[in-house]
Amino acid sequence: MIFYRLMFYEMEAMSLTPPYWISMGALAITTLAGAVFILNGLGLILEFESFIKATTLFFWAFGTWWIPLLVVLGVWRHVINKVPLNYSPDLWGMPFPLAMYTVGTINLSQALELSFLMIISDITFVIALITWILIFIGMIVHHGKRLRRH
Question: Cβ–Cβ contacts within 10 Å for residue 63, how many?
Answer without folding.
Answer: 23
